[in-house]
Amino acid sequence: MMEDNEEAERLFKEALAALKEMRHLINTIGKPYAAKVHGKYGEFLLSIEKKEEGEKQLRAAAKLGYGSGEVKPSPSAHNASTSQVSGSTSSAPGIPSMAFGPAEWEKYFGEVDPAPPLPADIEEILNSSCHYWPTKKVSETHLLFYVPSQVDDKPLTLNSLGHLIQNPKGGGKKTKYRYYKDDLVKAYGSKVTEAHWVLMTRDVVPGSRKNTYLKQCDLSKGGDEPLHLLDATVGILMSHTMSGKRLFGDNPWTDTRCQEVYGGYQICVGSFSLDGLSLHNDWSGGDGCGLALARKF
Q: What's the chain's average pLDDT?
């Protein structure tokens, strides 16, 4: 009995390792079978070479308290074979190389919850002309990044992010909050979000400086919106972690207004100097306060 339990645990750990490798995809690609597993990391389709192998792993999962379904032919394997014949593409695209996705979160900070799928036409979006800088592609003018709801089983918030960025792993560039007053900490520091993707401009859009927030919002195109506070902060900081570049920096001083309000003013993120990133309300209405725009997936 003890040997059976040990074998079940070994098999399922192997399965779980494979799951965690590919959990940002809805469908795995290229193998003939898929086994559905429910547990700590949400719901996954695990790619299986042989049906018998999948059934063993599901039995192991059940013994360890994980819910699971039956082993079925892999839908992505069907899509892959169809695309070879008809030229169609899978409905679950991979993650573009420019993105800061689940793999980057794990490299620098820890395990994250599964990412929802990106739009099937994400590559088309990235290769299209930017609404705000028409001579450039969206991939050149925007950041694409994943905002998980938790990192290492702890909710991702402005407060927890402030700790993470001070000690990234894997060669990531460290930084901190330069300005993050207690009133903002109390109002927004512990707020959480559902997992999602953000496609955000790398700078405030042209014409948004020296303007009111309402006039800035009128500059939006293609369904874009001002950023939420956590999204803007994550995007700027993840870009820095990976590249060392301080977008929305101090030369010139640049902040983006966000949707959140405190004390009657929009909250701004930016003025990213060597001393760190600033989060503050826009009481002064300075020339540096423009507007970055984004869409969520």
A: 80
